[in-house]
Amino acid sequence: MTITIHSSFLPHLDPDASLAFYRDVLGFEVRNDVGYEGMRWITVGPAEQPDTAIVLHPPGVGPGMTDDDRKALLEIIAKGSYFGANLAATDLDETFARLEAAGAEVVQEPVDQPYGLRDCAFRDPAGNLIRIQQVA
């Protein structure tokens, strides 16, 4: 049996701002952009990994979600403490410089972590934490 990662989901608060970040700042390709009842689900991913994607979705949509649940979820997202993704780059310093120059919100400059990784961190327009790790 083989199990692989196909897609992960991150909430967006402004689909156009999130699209600009993932497409124009990170350089991901847009694989799908679906609208339904005034909402949008946008699937993006690196061109070099056609079988792996991030789906940017409207938060608080789904069966069983109450108004109180939706309100609490939006408050957590607004604080930037809801979710995130770990990405990897072959040249972390160059990637950091490019994203910083593009206006991405810096959370952490490149640093050697005590657990053996070198990484940096940004926030996307919805406040999701995007960590980028150096790969050999």
TrEMBL record:
- Per UniProt, residues of the VOC domain are 4-135
Q: Which CDD domains match?
A: VOC_like
Looking at the record's lineage, which domain of life comes first? Answer: Bacteria
* PANTHER family given in the database record: GLYOXALASE/BLEOMYCIN RESISTANCE PROTEIN/DIOXYGENASE, GLYOXALASE_BLEOMYCIN RESISTANCE PROTEIN_DIOXYGENASE
Name of the protein in question: VOC family protein
Taxonomic source organism: Agromyces tropicus
